Amino acid sequence: MTVTLSRGYDRADWASAFRNVAVELDDAPLLAARGTIPPELHGTLYRNGPGRLERGGQWVHHPFDGDGMITALRFEAGQASLRNRFVRTEGWLAEEQAGRFVFRGVFGTQKPGGVIANAFDLRLKNIGNTHVVRLGDQLLALWEASSPHALDPVSLETRGVSLLDGVLKPGEAFSAHPRFDPGHHGAPRMVSFGVKSGPRSTIRLMEFATTFEPGGPQAGELLSERSDSFKGFAFLHDFAITPNWAVFLQNAIDFNPLPYVLGQKGAAQCLRSRRGGQAQFWLVPRNSGAFAGQEPRLIDAPEGFVFHHLNAWEDGNEVVLDSIFYADFPSIGPDQDFRSIDFDLIPEGMLERCRIDPVAGRVSTTRLSERCCEFAMVNPEREGLQARYAWMAVAERETGNDPLQALKKLDLETGERRLWSAGPRGFVSEPVMVPRPGATGEDDGWVLCVVWNGARCASDLVILDAATMAETALVELPLAIPHGLHGSFEPA
Ligand code: CO
Predict the structure, then answer these.
(1) How far is the CA of 328 from the centre of ligand 1 (A)?
(2) Number of domains in the chain
(3) pTM, two decimal places
């Protein structure tokens, strides 16, 4: 199938998504403007992302500093409804009351009053804006530099910071990128990690039960953990799992905290690519796998910078890791406005496959696609296993960097691509692949995606057939959701 893509976009359409979410809706009924909501689609799509980008006339320096807002889209019997709530973090509550920024943001947002007002204020504002997942009876709003916030999965009411039943110490970092093991070692699990960074960095790897079995562990219970220390400052946003390994890519990054301490920059603006530095794969044995109890394997990695991985799997002794590589670490300096960034000056994300041989210490790399992409996933049942298909957000143009306007299904075996485009006035977010109940085919299901509609200045939900990428339904949401981050689908 060939899809002819329109070229070009209006920058104002893209930038119009940067705004404050003005309302919190309760079970607003949704109707398909085109097509039909599939009756078998039963469950909730949870999305997280920055919902508050301005206070008292001051804009955040980077949208990643915006307060987390959760959107829940519920589907049942061909009907759908929407509920949204801000995560009631300590910072959100204080700033709502003050009507201005009270905390500095990690990505460079300053409190009013200039450098003097910001210097030596090293309090972290846990904004809970990066990902949202269900664990036991909690919905967790995740933000990697601190602990999760727990919400009621139905009402979205914030219960407060969760230490996961005493697993975490107060304020302990917990990644925003848990991975869901679909059953490599019996029942499904959530595998996640926390990083304590410094001249030496420590990764705490944790595995949690996600299902309840009579006589077995409760959903949300910690099943196992291990901690490993590595030389150097670790910046780890994401990781991947296989049945035997937790796979980390340590980028060659340095952190110079001085401008942060002195009130000149946000902490994340103090990260810099280390010239001539060597990135490394850190393969940490999972406690339930064949290498349990052994030391991590460290293997030199190719040049480039990675935020997100698609998936990992084992091929004999080799670990195969598919990741989105950037030529360099993208950063927004103190004097730049995020709404006027020049896409041509920022490196684009490229899907690449690394075959890692931990015994020989060798890595070979192949590029899987030339098109700028982000937010890639496989069928959740194939997480950690070899998958044939991947779904991702891509640019309309075949090459070069542009905003993400299309969704792509990639056949990792044949290279065949199928595209759905939101262009020229639509901008996609992370696609979530949902298998059809009882599906046997890997691509049997739907792709759900919240799309910024620049013509309506509001958000749409698109439901695609995951096999053909044909549009099944388009729902115009009664809400304007800024460009978002991650989310997950929880079957009913
Ligand atoms: Co992420």
Answers:
(1) 17
(2) 1
(3) 0.96
